[in-house]
Design brief:
The structure is a homodimer of 399-residue chains. Chain A has 19 helices and eight strands. By secondary structure, chain A is of the alpha/beta class. In chain A, helix 2 links the parallel strand 2 and strand 3.
């Protein structure tokens, strides 16, 4: 059996993801589709809309065969680290290829870009450094450096597009770890990231869909944009949790944490660059509402995503110290599988490069302990009083 | 004008407190009654039933002329430190005497006890040390040592009684700081600390009264046990806060804090003796209810009060380090006054030994910063989103 990998958040799973899963299978010619998926906190520094078990169920119901959790240290990190963790896991589980959605839509520009940046690494980094010095955000600096290096040249990947950036980092990660995994890409269609639901499209962005849920759209209005299985799973999640995950919901606990820590300790938390701790503290004092808080903290230098990552680490209580010490994943946490996925795992058992963990209780790896902790923090934010759910929830199975 | 001092929590103010205030005035012959009162957290390690402003209003409405806040470092400490902070403040404001309620009811036994313990300090401490080694709690050890020293002798204060213990420490504090303040005591009447409301008595314990409120007793049922002003102030507090302060109410935030910190950091918080951090963490994991949590943590060695003090410091986020570094109060925070209290303060202005602070914004003293912080933490626990209330609330005035 041949496996292909994808890297996902499914926040929540919608028709765009269905398309990606379907096309990845076609492009790769694989029998089995493996998704490495973020856990309870996401790359943009947000608590997940639905927990990792619900999101795993959605994936298994719609074409994914195996779901592996991307550890917190990677899942909440900047693109290069995010990609490194994900590709390491897909390689370890024996995927022959991986397939990402991109605005670019073809793989050659990515390979060409990688070649260019590798050969001109020093110049590139110098240019980034200079751009950052002018006070702009890191992503903007990266982009300026890149544009000047390619001389706006065609044939290179357009790294102003968010999915292209991620794609580039996947390829970089694969090359750097000399993984035999073969990179593939498919064209991302429709809905830009921040589009609200557009009734004319059957693909809407995850952001738009979340928005619709938060605004109390009826499930019928959403039917056009998500597989029915996703809708049912979300309905159930909603019933059990009286809503969905969001910073709005988590803010009272976050705010209490920030005020409790005070500036002196705030700067110990990951991503809280020294100097911003007073701003964070004062913003939390003043703002009872998370949007007001973020508006006060974000700036040209610190993007919303960056601020949200700080919020995530303060919320979970992870310090620079704790997150700094990891290099590559040393385990693989199985969140769920289909019958076919199980068959693949049985067959591959001996070839899988990392211990495959099905139960939280078996997760003794220090990196895995962070995931268990992050999960308990998420549960508290959702108002789940049984924080041991992490230990009592077996991998989801879709027969 | 002559002032007498009392040390109070008023949690909440009831007929027993009215009696104490009234008798203190008679015993001392003073014109003005000054209360040093705990702020948002109390000596038994609990959030206050009503906030310090409401409790100040109750006091001013019922015979107290000036309310000074006992700083957090003393208010949440063991009896000897609690007493030291309180007596230092009463001395500094120029009280000629102070008057405490005691089971003993006369002052001579306390003075005799103080003389005995001072002259036999070394023996006494050795005996306490030995008793602690047997694994009993500190209060029990103290008592055993004391009993053996006095040979159960009459004429000494009975230090098995909680108010006698506090009284002893007031006297000890006054003597140690060579304050000219004159100690007085009145007999405490009726209601033991944990008695529920007894319909035959017009004095009920604060615990009993809180219990009645939590169980939703009608205000009419409580009328016999509290001044009408107290009832009205509590009614208003209840309306504004949708209930009262308690660990039950604060536990979700406390639990989140404990789980977020994990054992490695828990032991940094004040009163968390090394070794108990794992027990605290595991108890918080298992228990969604504060009583369950406390039951798991308390033991022969760690009394409920001791555990609740740990809870208080974890909740507010104060470390050993932060609370260790204070010796004596360096300011006096005015929470409220009557017209007569104001007259006394104007007259005494030049003689008052410490800066008198009326507005939180003027409180730059490090010890005072802790109070402001503790107050914000209390407000969050009560669900007050405007945590700057500390800065916008002027001293209460009763004309």
């Amino acid at each position: 059996m041949k496996a292909a990998g994808i890297v996902v958040e499914y926040n929540p799973f919608h028709n765009g993801h269905l398309h990606h899963a379907f096309q990845s299978r076609i492009e790769s010619g694989a029998d089995v589709l493996v998704a490495v998926m973020s856990g309870q906190f996401l790359q943009r520094g947000e608590p997940a809309f639905a927990d990792k078990w619900a999101r795993t169920e959605m994936a298994l119901a719609s074409g994914v065969d195996i779901v592996i959790e991307l550890p917190y240290v990677y899942a909440t990190a900047q693109a290069s680290d995010f990609a490194r963790g994900a590709i390491a896991l897909l390689s370890a589980i024996g995927c022959e290829s991986f397939c990402f959605g991109s605005e670019q839509g073809s793989i050659e520009p990515f390979l060409r870009t990688y070649g260019l940046l590798e050969s001109k690494r020093a110049v590139y980094e110098q240019k980034i450094h200079e751009a950052v010095q002018t006070g702009i955000s890191y992503p903007k600096a990266l982009n300026e450096a890149y544009t000047s290096l390619t001389e706006n040249g065609a044939g290179y990947a357009d790294l102003k597009q968010p999915n292209n950036i991620l794609g580039y980092h996947y390829i970089e990660a694969a090359k750097k770890m000399a993984s035999p995994i073969r990179p593939l890409t498919i064209q991302r269609i429709a809905a830009n990231y921040h589009d609200p639901i557009d009734k004319e499209l059957t693909i809407a962005s995850a952001t738009g869909i979340r928005q619709a849920f938060f605004e109390g759209a009826s499930m019928e209005e959403i039917t056009d944009y998500m597989p029915e299985a996703s809708i049912n799973i979300l309905k159930e999640f909603n019933r059990a949790h009286n809503g969905f995950g969001s910073w709005e919901r988590f803010y009272p606990l976050l705010r209490y944490s920030i005020l409790r820590e005070r500036p002196s300790r705030l700067k110990e938390f990951a991503e809280v660059t020294e100097g911003i701790e007073n701003l964070i503290y004062e913003a939390a004092k003043k703002e009872a509402d998370v949007e007001g808080f973020i508006s006060r903290v974000k700036s040209k230098r610190f993007t919303r995503t960056r601020v949200q990552r700080m919020m995530t680490h303060i919320y979970t209580g992870f310090t620079w110290e704790e997150l700094r010490s990891f290099e590559t994943p040393a385990y693989m946490r199985l969140l769920g599988m289909t019958a076919k996925g199980q068959q693949y795992l049985n067959q591959q058992k001996k070839n899988i490069g990392l211990p495959l963990i099905s139960r939280a209780a078996d997760l003794t790896d220090p990196m895995g302990k962070l995931d268990i902790h992050a999960s308990a923090m998420y549960l508290l934010g959702m108002g789940v009083v049984d924080v041991k759910k992490e230990f009592t929830t077996p991998p989801r199975y879709f027969g």
